Amino acid sequence: MTTKPSFPADFLWGAATSAYQIEGSPLADGAGVSNWHRFAHRPGTIAHGDHGDTACDHYRRYEEDIQLMRELGLQAYRFSIAWHRIFPEGRGRLNPKGLDFYLRLADALNNAGIVPCATLHHWDWPAALDDQGGWAHRDSAQWFADYAHTLFRALDGRVKHWATLNEPWVIVHAGYIEGAHPPGVPAFAKAPHAAHNLLRGHALAVQAFRADGAGQIGLVVNLEPKFAASAKPEDQAALARSHAYMNRWFLDPVFLGGYPEEMADIFGADWPRFPEEDFKLIREPFDFLGINYYSRTVVRDEPANLPVRDARVRQRAEHTAMDWEVFPEGLKTCLTWVKQRYTTLPLYVTENGAAFADPPAVAGRVADPRRVAYLRDHLRAAHAALAEGVDLKGYFAWSLLDNFEWAHGYGKRFGLVRVDYPTGTRTPKDSARFYRRVIESRGAVLWEAEEG
Ligand code: GBH
Hints:
The chain is of the alpha/beta class. It has one domain: TIM Barrel (Alpha-Beta Barrel), CATH 3.20.20.80. It has helices at about 20, 35-40, 60-70, 85, 95-110, 125-130, 140-155, 170-180, 190-210, 235-250, 250-255, 260-265, 275-280, 330-340, 370-385, 430-440, and strands at about 10-15, 75-80, 115-120, 160-165, 215-225, 225-230, 290-295, 295-300, 310, 345-350, 390-400, 415-420, 425-430. Strands 1-2-3-4-5-7-10-11 form an eight-stranded parallel β-barrel, surrounded by five helices. The model has no long low-confidence stretch (mean pLDDT about 95). Bound molecules: ligand GBH. Ligand GBH binds near residues 170 and 297. It catalyses: Hydrolysis of terminal, non-reducing beta-D-glucosyl residues with release of beta-D-glucose.
């Protein structure tokens, strides 16, 4: 008789969101104007002219959402803190009413028996800081550390799981290379500095946590296995650049003490020389690495596409509504790659999920079979990594709720729970019910035959 595979008893099962994507009430209770609030209200930036003014109205409905989490059987909830609610101008004057929201949120989660996992920076921050040079300003690292330090003290005893940054690569790539996110103006020469200061800020925040915090703190990165479209040397070189750019730019300095060689090739004359002592700081040890996994990419050489000089080659395979390839085994690849190349630190899958064009709720039910299959196949891949000795401690589905999908607006739905706009009505999808059974069975249902 074979026993069904299952996840460890202490494996942490959760779902994730971020502040600007769900909260709404962007200016409530004395909050400052955030970069995202300002950006989304600039015409032409977001699909359909969408913005986060209401979003999921979570700022006002958080208690109901925690009730939903209980119904889903979640053990943990990963959310982010909106910096501009705490420090409306970015630094200096603290706004107690904004802070109070997160105290209430953390208390309510703890009372519900759900572990609060707070991310300090998931892309929204005070617009005033962009006006002072943003992440390209060397002092931004200290701005972040000061903000982080305040929160460690304020939420001490309430939150024990912290992440510094969510996907610094996206902040730099979308914000400073593409301009699809704020500050919104492509500025290649600033990008290496923004990346460097994000890393310094992360390290300074970890140091502040060691001085004045309790629990565990980590960094969250997005990873994606890269493949070359052919064995041609040009495509192989494009692969090396693409992989260095997305997967190694942030992790090489954190774990190995320096940037990938390829960065100088990618940025050419815009690649700076950084002070040697910064690399010592950036290697500050922390407690876990969070990995956000969605897809893979296959690349070929494309000299016209700066700065990386690659292009994606779309595969004949299932794609999500984001046009991202569904590639479950890539999750295992990323987890084992981190273990082999960098570290045996505990790992979490801090985001994984898919947008699909779900049908609206019919009689209180949303049928989303493709999301159920996506979850099942990725969780099997996560289990395969565990079986190979990866120290994977937990998994967070992206996302608890349909929400504001950044430049794509509300058109892309990643939620386990459907949100109807503008009423905000929440309806758990079939995937939410499935995830509940996964949690209850510690994964055993992942290996059951498909039901009709
Ligand atoms: C995350 O970022 C964010 O943390 C979260 O806020 C967001 O809502 C969620 O994902 C969904 O987007 O175009 O095929 O080359 C996602 C990071 C990095 C994933 C780039 C997709 C490009 C795939 N993304 N990647 S492709």
